[in-house]
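Page 42, continued from yesterday. The earlier attempt failed because a stray header line got pasted into the input along with the sequence. Redoing it now with the clean sequence only.
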Amino acid sequence: MNPYASTQSYRDSAVLTASPEQLVVMLYDGAVRFLRQAEVAMNEGAYLHSYEKLGRGEAIIDELLATLNMDSGEIAERLQAIYVFSKKTLIEARLQRNAEKITHVIALLGSLREAWAKLAEQANAQRATTTA
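This time it went through. Structure tokens are written below.
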């Protein structure tokens, strides 16, 4: 039996049953996890490993960018600017081999993650009261 099968099943179930807000929180969690791994690898001089993890973090930021509803106004525009800034900063981190730039993006995404987690919590509470 595959020891990871139950973990994968749990993840699949969590994604399939998550609210849109929770899915955004999961994306932030993944991006931050990969960027932390990239930061550690870069600090250790393992640049190829760092670049791979940076690429995975950037792919999640790309997904966040692609799923923005630009019709929703100023908030979407600001998120777009933050994501573009984050991508630019991560490219600079890779070119300059500067882990501090990765740290900056981690902090930025961490703050956004906390805001989305609160939003998800409020949305779930609202859904619970409307279905009760």
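Notes: The helical segments are 5-17, 20-43, 47-66, 74-96, 99-131.
Reminder to self: strip header lines before submitting.
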